[in-house]
From TrEMBL, chain A:
The keyword Chaperone does not apply. Keywords: Membrane, Transmembrane, Transmembrane helix. It comes from the Bacteria. The chain crosses the membrane at residues 12-28, 48-67, 74-95, 115-132. Residues 6-131 form the Methylamine utilisation protein MauE domain. This is Methylamine utilisation protein MauE domain-containing protein. It comes from Chitinophaga silvisoli. GO terms for cellular component: membrane. GO terms for biological process: methylamine metabolic process. It is found in: Membrane. It is a multi-pass membrane protein. The keyword Transmembrane applies.
Automatic annotation (TrEMBL), chain B:
Keywords: Membrane, Transmembrane, Transmembrane helix. This is 6-bladed beta-propeller. It comes from the Bacteria. The keyword Transmembrane helix applies. The chain crosses the membrane at residues 14-35.
Length: 146, 357
């Protein structure tokens, strides 16, 4: 297996584990997730939508990452979501009057600063996956020559 | 027709990486928009300034604490005690050695099961008092004699403070009233005394007039600092109101919208919006009332205010504003703080920070 494929596989596995874990945690603790999201000043109006929409989206992204044909879109979506999460954590730390916790499972034990660094790490993972997957796509592009 | 596989990498052109770039820029735009449109009373000016004391509190030490610590329950010269995540238990931190240990107060498994996760502890001398609002249980343990007494309030209470080994002040629900009132409870006679109505009746079960009930052990004065308005009521241990005062901000009326209550699946009433408290928490020590404010003054900028714990000081006799100080960079993971013997003890997720005032 080439370094490129190993990198793609590692990034994919890390992101799939992250999204499935956080999605399941949110769904298992649904009422707590809604409560915490409602207390976040930036998303309070969308708490009910996000409390089920976010885990569903995370599961869909995990599936996109797992399926070979859709992996690039999975990496794009992962990058989008991780940048969004990171921007949210940064905004909460600097612009919010209240700091709740809306993450699931073991991530709820982290401080917001630690959470920010975890997110930055996963942005790096998603970006690396996106770049290598893009290269992989280009490498294997099939042309029909008359 | 011949099929040929070949690489097009590296391919020049901005367009190739445009989707990747957009995936990073669009979320930033979305978040910036959410911040811009989110409600926050501190985005506006409120027409008052804080007088910051020239000498900032000095950090004396930071000590790691165990994960079970929930809130500071009491401070002695040698130890700091915490309410525990485990009902019926308290946590102890030895200040000199940094040793951390758990102390089981309630060993009876039947009683333990009745206690909820919101059970809070209070340490006064040899007494350990556990207050469990949902069950109405008040449990007093003596650390020296290992004796334990259990008292049951007929109605649920939300705020409590011990004023002596035998007497407690409570804010509790009253049968037939959609409000809460203050009572003095005698643990020996198991009687409630002197109903006090020091908050407005909003017919919402007293939720919008929720606040912090604190006691100055040195001067025997109590203070009730409302979360959602700037009202501060000072009263003595007989229940006599000494002064109805105000914090320095300009929020005399509640920000709290009572029609915004949400209902959790387990039936507990809660706020369904992020409540922006006028006054967040308080501590009363040696004639000075310390109040953590949720309102930015005109001489503070928004980011600095959101990142710091801003504490206003008031005279404990007449509520006159004395001055303010702020603790920077401690807001992340903050649980609670208390002032004892000219020191401020601040508990965050993983450590206790001690400041000299």
């Amino acid at each position: 297996m080439s370094i490129q494929k190993t990198a793609i596989s590692t990034c994919k596995n890390l992101l799939v584990m992250l999204f499935l874990y956080t999605a399941i945690s949110k769904l298992l603790n649904y009422s707590e997730t809604v409560l915490q999201m409602e207390k976040s000043p930036f998303i309070t109006q969308y708490a009910y939508l996000l409390s089920w929409g976010m885990p569903v989206l995370e599961i869909i992204i995990a599936i996109l990452l797992i399926v070979d044909k859709t992996r690039l879109y999975g990496f794009y979506a992962s990058l989008f979501l991780m940048v969004l999460f990171t921007a949210y954590v940064f905004a909460m730390m600097h612009y919010s009057y209240y700091l709740p916790c809306s993450c699931g499972g073991i991530l709820s034990l982290l401080t917001w600063t630690q959470h920010l660094w975890v997110n930055v790490f996963f942005i790096f993972v998603a970006l690396t996956g996106t770049i290598f997957e893009k290269m992989n796509h280009a490498d294997t592009k099939v042309f029909h020559v008359a | 027709m011949q099929t040929q596989k070949f690489s097009t990498w590296p391919e020049n052109g901005f367009l190739k990486w445009l989707p990747t770039i957009l995936m990073m820029i669009i979320p930033l735009g979305i978040m910036a928009m959410l911040v811009k449109i989110s409600p926050d009373i501190n985005k506006q000016s409120h027409g008052f300034n804080r007088n910051f004391i020239t000498q900032e509190p000095t950090l004396l030490k930071k000590i790691p604490v165990g994960k079970l610590s929930k809130y500071i329950a009491g401070v002695t010269p040698t130890d700091v005690y915490f309410s525990s995540m485990k009902p019926g238990q308290i946590e102890r931190l030895e200040l000199n050695t940094g040793n951390y240990s758990s102390i089981m107060v309630v060993t009876n498994p039947v009683l333990q099961k009745r206690l909820s996760a919101s059970c809070q502890a209070e340490i006064n001398g040899p007494y350990v008092r556990l207050f469990d609002s949902p069950s109405g249980l008040m449990i007093t343990g003596n650390r020296l004699t290992h004796k334990m007494e259990v008292h049951q309030s007929p109605e649920l209470f939300t705020r409590f403070v011990s004023i002596s080994p035998e007497k407690v002040f409570l804010r509790k629900f009253v049968n037939g009233e959609k409000d809460q009132s203050f009572y003095k409870y005698d643990l020996q006679t198991e009687q409630f005394y002197g109903k006090m109505k020091i908050t407005d009746n909003k017919t919402d079960g007293g939720l919008s007039t929720d606040g912090e009930l604190v006691f100055d052990h040195v001067n025997g004065t109590l203070a009730y600092v409302e979360h959602n308005s700037n009202r501060i009521t000072l009263f003595d241990t007989s229940g006599q109101v000494l002064k109805v005062s105000h914090s320095i901000d300009t929020f005399a009326t509640n920000l709290f919208q009572t029609n915004k209550f949400g209902y959790q699946t387990d039936g507990i009433i809660t706020n369904n919006a992020p409540v922006q408290f006028v006054n967040q928490s308080a501590s009363f020590e040696n004639g000075i009332l310390y109040v953590q404010s949720g309102v930015r003054s005109d001489n503070q900028n928004l980011i600095d205010f959101n990142e710091a714990v801003v504490i206003d000081r008031y005279d404990g006799k007449d509520g006159t504003y004395i001055g303010s100080f702020q603790l920077k960079g401690v807001k992340d993971g903050i649980r609670n703080w208390v002032v004892r013997d000219q020191k401020l003890y601040l508990l965050s997720n993983s450590r206790l920070s001690i400041y000299s005032l």
